TrEMBL record:
Keywords: Decarboxylase, Lyase, Pyrimidine biosynthesis. GO terms for biological process: 'de novo' pyrimidine nucleobase biosynthetic process; 'de novo' UMP biosynthetic process. GO terms for molecular function: orotate phosphoribosyltransferase activity; orotidine-5'-phosphate decarboxylase activity. Pathway: Pyrimidine metabolism; UMP biosynthesis via de novo pathway; UMP from orotate: step 2/2. Substrate binds at D39, K61, S152, Q211, G230, R231. Belongs to the OMP decarboxylase family. It catalyses: orotidine 5'-phosphate + H(+) = UMP + CO2. This is Orotidine 5'-phosphate decarboxylase. SUPFAM superfamilies: Ribulose-phoshate binding barrel (SSF51366). The active site is at D92, K94, D97.
Length: 263
């Protein structure tokens, strides 16, 4: 069968990248293909949500630039929580500039993303120089890159030939590019890319700004290896409700994976 129809453990053989390997191992160990997107804007709230969902996730996704009281202590505490609960970190930076600029954005500035984030993502629109630049910083640190091959939002331009050309760019940098942000399985049947899919929520079709949602079962059925859920989880009121919701998505995502392996 195609690599993505096999178990997460067996797919370890297809990856040399340390971040990709750590993620596959964590998914298998915790039986969780859930990534929670913690899109909240204070340190205290970020840490509260991460502590609540930590036991249920393989990956925590941040938008670090929306945290209004960001400081180095947040990064220390995030790292402590990642050890306590056993998860990896993905800063959703969506780099989109020339190689030289993204080198600086990835390694320097207030956030120094490369120093703490196992994964980050980039748009392919600038061409391969963006990957070369990010790789020059990230590869020596064992980081992994996800290319935005498709988007979940209504009217996205990332489709058709753009998506195909993005997959081709990934093929040419397999040591660093470990997969895609996408809505479905991409690449040839014999290739193995990690597919991380946002736009996932139970009981909502979308928001008023063009976000479009599918269920965990639907996206895993189409090839998602990791489901990314934001408001569906952190949008619940109270730490206990957030924890319960993360557990619910974890179970849904894992059941869908088991279903896919049977197919
Ligand atoms: O579940 P939501 O709608 O609350 O949050 C979805 C999260 C947000 C988006 O910035 C992000 O996923 N996202 C991405 C990513 C991960 O790159 C791509 C995309 O196509 N759609 C999308 O929503 O943090």
């Amino acid at each position: 069968p195609a690599p993505y129809l096999q178990s997460y453990e067996s797919r370890l053989a297809n990856y040399n990248n340390p971040a990709a390997r750590a993620l596959l191992e964590c998914i298998a160990r915790k039986q969780s293909n859930l990534c929670v997107s913690v899109d909240v804007s204070t340190k205290a709230k970020v840490l509260e949500v991460v502590d609540a969902v930590g036991p249920s996730v393989c990956l925590i996704k941040t938008h670090i630039d929306i945290v209004e009281d960001f400081d180095a202590d947040l990064l220390d505490q995030l790292e402590q929580l990642s050890k306590k609960h056993d998860f990896l970190i993905f800063e959703d930076r969506k780099f989109a500039d020339i190689g030289n600029t993204v080198v600086l954005q990835y390694s320097k500035g207030v956030h120094q993303i490369a120093s703490w984030s196992h994964f980050t993502n980039a748009h392919s629109v600038p061409g391969p120089g963006i990957i070369a630049g990010l790789a020059s910083v990230g590869l020596p640190l064992g980081r992994g890159l996800l290319l935005l091959a498709e988007m979940s939002s209504e009217g996205t331009l990332a489709k058709g030939e753009y998506t195909e050309a993005t997959v081709q760019m990934a093929r040419e940098s397999r040591g660093f590019v470990v997969g895609f942000i996408a809505q479905q399985r991409l690449g040839r049947a014999d290739e193995d890319f990690l597919i991380l899919t946002p736009g996932v929520q139970l009981g909502s079709a979308g928001d008023s700004l063009g976000q479009q949602y599918n269920t965990p079962a639907a996206v895993v059925g189409k090839g998602a290896d990791v489901i990314i859920v934001g408001r569906g989880v952190y949008g619940k009121a109270g730490k206990e409700a957030v924890r319960e919701e993360a557990e619910r998505y974890k179970k849904e995502g894992w059941a869908a994976y088991e279903q896919r392996m049977k197919a």
